[in-house]
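Hi everyone, sorry if this is the wrong subforum. Our group has a chain we'd like a structural model of before ordering constructs, and none of us has done structure prediction before. Sequence below.
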Amino acid sequence: MNIMEANLEASFQLQRRVEFAETDMAGIAHFTNYFRYMEEAEHAFLRSRGLSVVLDDPKGKLGFPKMSAHCDYKRPARYEELVDVHVKVTCDDGKSV
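Answer:
Right subforum, don't worry. Here is the predicted structure as tokens:
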């Protein structure tokens, strides 16, 4: 299945709980974990579409290299809180998502 056949233009939401190992002694998630949460949601989104982070293609292996990452922190996530991670995927040029 190629990327365009997979209908990647979609939205997805993953809910996960902040684990103790992701926090400092005050119970606040370290800021770097937000990028892990985003990647976890990306992988779950791809799996929900029958895909993987690494795809087999007649020309070889395909992947999803990151061109940019950005996060605005609104408030800290705390130990045992549920965090909703929303993924919105668009394909503008038929090659990049």
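For your construct planning: The beta strands are 10-17, 55-57, 60-62, 82-89. The two ends are 16 Å apart (CA to CA).
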